[in-house]
């Protein structure tokens, strides 16, 4: 077997020696498609050795490096690709993406690349969406909205833009527009569950104060996507507010059966059990919340309340003090601490 493998490796080496630069680019593209970035880089570099003016070689190398988190090297390679082919929209787009991935300090460069790409290809919905999502990450929803709207005007089936656009409307306290948008998305989509449109519609209804319609939307979402914890969590919150504790418990337990490490599921269920006087059950969930988020003062505070109700005053004050140290200062706790000092 070892001899056969060595012969195969030798034959492959011989084939690569006779491979043209285009052959090597094709191999690089194939390994890039498979997500094998190091091997892809190797083939692109071999192609560039044969022809250092191959824009696609620098493009593939740069994209692969960025996928590996080597942003400086990746951006350098992509810059060379753009220099060789300044009107290549894909190169400009990926250079922008790589800058965006690198972090906030590079977002201006990302914006510049997206704008250059859009100048060459204003009819590409993906480019408008990407620029809009960058603006959204920067908190510039007023600038993001027209980009998402352009993306949808160009391609009504570019469904991801509905969610981003609706989120911007909600950020700007425009729930009516968000509701209409998600209703349009549901009407246009053959599979509305794929993009969680009913979940987002439910959030829009909640923002507009229409709780019954919101609840109905979340019920549909949980039917379409029974393993989507966020819909169960929000539906549980609605039942909690309605004081329908039995249904709220069902939804929170469903959240934790889907994802036992869902911190908010433990926190909300713990609060519910405290509300109905089940401090022992509440304690178990706040202990899980503190394990998952030890830096969150509110977890220690409510765990302390549980200990207090269960008669463990020493542990109660230990947790309450931790909550204060972490900056969680609810007014009742502050008042009690001041009384203790008198």
How would you state the average pLDDT, rounded? Answer: 93
Which range does the strand content fall in? under 5%
Helix content range: over 70%
Molecular shape: elongated
Outline the low-pLDDT stretches: 7-15
Report the CATH superfamily of the domain at 19-121. Answer: Tetratricopeptide repeat domain
N-to-C span: 84 Å
Helical run tally: 20
Radius of gyration: 27 Å
Describe the structure in your own words.
By secondary structure, the protein is mostly helical. Among the domains are: about 20-120, Tetratricopeptide repeat domain (Serine Threonine Protein Phosphatase 5, Tetratricopeptide repeat, Alpha Horseshoe); about 225-330, Serine Threonine Protein Phosphatase 5, Tetratricopeptide repeat. About 80% of the residues lie in helices and about 0% in strands. It is elongated.
């Amino acid at each position: 077997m070892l001899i056969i493998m060595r012969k195969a490796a030798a034959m492959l080496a011989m084939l690569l020696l006779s491979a043209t630069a285009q052959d090597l680019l094709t191999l690089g593209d194939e390994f890039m498609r498979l997500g094998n970035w190091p091997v892809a880089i190797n083939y692109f570099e071999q192609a560039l050795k044969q022809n250092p003016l191959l824009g696609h070689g620098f493009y593939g190398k740069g994209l692969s490096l960025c996928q590996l988190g080597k942003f400086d090297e990746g951006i350098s390679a992509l810059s060379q690709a753009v220099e060789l082919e300044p009107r290549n929209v894909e190169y400009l787009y990926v250079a922008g993406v790589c800058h965006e991935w690198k972090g906030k300090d590079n977002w201006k460069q990302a914006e510049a690349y997206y704008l250059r790409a859009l100048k060459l290809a204003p009819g590409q919905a993906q480019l408008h969406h990407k620029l809009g999502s960058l603006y959204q990450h920067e908190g510039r929803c007023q600038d993001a909205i027209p980009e998402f709207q352009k993306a949808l005007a160009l391609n009504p089936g570019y469904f991801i833009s509905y969610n981003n656009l609706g989120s911007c409307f909600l950020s700007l306290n425009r729930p009516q527009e968000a509701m209409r948008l998600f209703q349009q998305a549901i009407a246009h989509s053959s599979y509305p569950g794929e993009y969680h449109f009913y979940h987002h519609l439910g959030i829009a209804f909640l923002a507009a104060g229409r709780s019954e319609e919101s609840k109905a939307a979340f019920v549909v979402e949980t039917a379409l996507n029974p393993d989507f914890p966020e819909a169960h969590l929000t539906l549980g919150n609605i039942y909690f507010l309605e004081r329908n504790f039995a249904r709220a418990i069902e939804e929170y337990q469903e959240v934790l059966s889907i994802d036992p490490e869902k911190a908010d599921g433990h926190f909300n269920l713990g609060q519910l059990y405290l509300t109905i006087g089940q401090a022992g059950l509440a304690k178990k969930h706040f202990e899980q919340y503190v394990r998952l988020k030890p830096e969150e003062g509110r977890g220690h505070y409510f765990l302390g309340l549980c200990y207090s109700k269960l008669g463990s005053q020493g542990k109660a004050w230990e947790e309450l003090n931790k909550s204060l140290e972490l900056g969680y200062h609810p007014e009742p706790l502050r008042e009690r601490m001041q009384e203790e000092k008198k």
